[in-house]
Every structure is written in C-alpha cells, then in structure tokens.
Design a protein that fits this description.
globular; two-stranded antiparallel sheet; Rossmann fold; alpha/beta
C-alpha cells in the first residue's frame, strides 16, 4: 500500500514514479532494491520512508535522498553540491573503450570531475591506470575523495582544486570532461534547477563558455596516441567539434542511447 501511494504521489513530478518509490523504500529498509523486490515487499514500512517521500515530493533528486547513484560499473556517493551522475555520461567511457581497444590508457585526466564520476569509472575499467580529477568545487571534491576511498582507488586517483587545466603540465592518454553546457536562459526541471549546483550546469548565453576555455588547453596535455572525450548538450556537438578542430585536433562524434550526439572526441592527427 505504501509503495502504491508513493508511486501515485510521484506521478505528477517524476518520469519514474514506481522506481523512485522502490528506491526510497529500499533505502528506508537498509537493503537493495533487488532484495526489496525479491523478498521484502510485505515488510513493515519504516518511519523514515515518509520523510524520504516528502523530500522527493519537494523535487529533491532521488540520488541525494538515498545518497548514491550507480554509474558504469560503480556506485558513487553524491549529495548537495555535487552534480548527480547521469547515464548519458557513460557515452564518454564507451567512446574511450572503443578508441583503446586492446590497448589501455595509463594516465587519465578528468576535468570537472565532480564526485569523481568519469575518472573513477575509467579507473574501474582499466585497473592499472592512474588518474587526476580537477574541479572548482571543494564540496564536490569531498565526495570524490570519499568515493575513491570506498572503491579502493585512493592509491590510483588524486584530486585537485582548479580552474579546468590551468597550470597543469604533462601528457595524458585519456582526457575526460563533462563541463557545464546549459545556456543561462534555458529552463530546467525543478529537481535540477533548485538542487544541483548551478556552477556545474550553466555556461553562458549559448552554453559553450567552458568549451572555449578547455579547447586551447587540450593539445599540450593530450598524448600522441591519446583521446579526449567531452560531453556536450543536445545540438552542441558540431560547434564544440569546431572549437577543437581550430586547435589542430581531429574530431569525431558519438551518440548516446537516446540517439543524441553526446560525446565529442578529439585526438592528434
């Protein structure tokens, strides 16, 4: 009954009302969603469930309420101040896997790492690699450090407060970046607009301000046989590819599962 009532309540504000209800109930019970569905649907409803439902009805992201989000092959701790990992961003890891094939990157750079999303996913894919994540948010980097420790990657992942690649030297086999790409005048869902950090979302009148900073930084940082994979918003791929091409890089575009051009790849000729 409680699951059904929560599902009905979420229907007006969520595209996944039943899933939201199940995740919150599992979190309240301290079990996985799979365990809930297999053997705990008749469990007594914990007192915490009502509070979780109220937070979700106030448009708080489900990942903030439960404190984590699955991404690629890992689970990441997230909360206020950190951008919630999204499945679309896995397109960058897929592009990197396709590029390297049987080879493997040894040094990885993640610009705008947030809670360590792309860097830690890449390190899970290539266990011998080491990486550096940079972000302008101390709060986001706090989550990144927690995640690296929880995943047993603290000896392979380091994090640094910074403004993109400013002052950074050295070459990296793989560069990942998910910059802000929302135009300042665009309308966002309440759960994004009111809860996720604006600094990780908005990037000027056309949403491309940060790509204009990053593009000139890449050629000197990208190893000869390496690749840079940048996430872009819908309709931005061609313009971002042009910015990278103007730096002498060869570019390509990869779409996400929804068919949206989501990743712009760049490499040396």
């Amino acid at each position: 009954m409680a699951l059904a009532e929560a599902t009905a309540a979420f229907a007006a504000t969520s595209q996944t009302p039943r899933l939201d209800a199940e995740l919150l109930m599992a979190h309240a019970l301290g079990i996985t969603r799979e365990s809930l569905l297999l053997s705990h649907l008749d469990a007594e409803v914990p007192e915490a469930f009502a509070a979780f439902v109220a937070r979700r009805l106030a448009h708080e992201p489900i990942a903030y309420v439960v404190g984590s989000r699955a991404f690629w092959t890992i689970d990441l701790a997230v909360g206020p101040g950190a951008l919630v990992p999204r499945a679309d961003s896995e397109t960058l890891i897929e592009a990197a896997v396709a590029h390297f094939g049987d080879r493997r990157p040894h040094r990885i750079l993640d610009l705008g790492t947030g809670p360590g999303t792309l860097l830690l996913a890449a390190l899970s894919q290539w266990p011998e690699a080491h990486g550096l994540g940079i972000d302008a948010s101390e709060k986001a980097l706090g989550y990144a450090g927690i995640n690296a420790d929880d995943l047993g990657m603290d000896d392979r992942a380091s994090f640094r407060l910074g403004n993109w690649a400013e002052g950074l030297k050295g070459e990296f086999d793989l560069i990942l970046a998910n910059p802000p790409y929302i135009a300042t005048g665009d309308t966002l869902p309440a759960e994004v607009r009111d809860h996720e950090p604006a600094g990780a979302l908005f990037a000027g009148a056309d949403g491309l301000d940060d790509y204009r900073i990053i593009a000139p930084q890449l050629p000197a940082l990208l190893a000869t046989d390496g690749i840079a994979c940048l996430e872009v918003g819908a309709g931005q791929a061609v313009e971002v590819a042009a910015l990278l091409g103007a730096q002498g890089l060869v570019t390509g575009i990869r779409s996400d599962l929804g068919g949206i051009a989501r990743c712009v790849m760049a490499r040396h000729s």
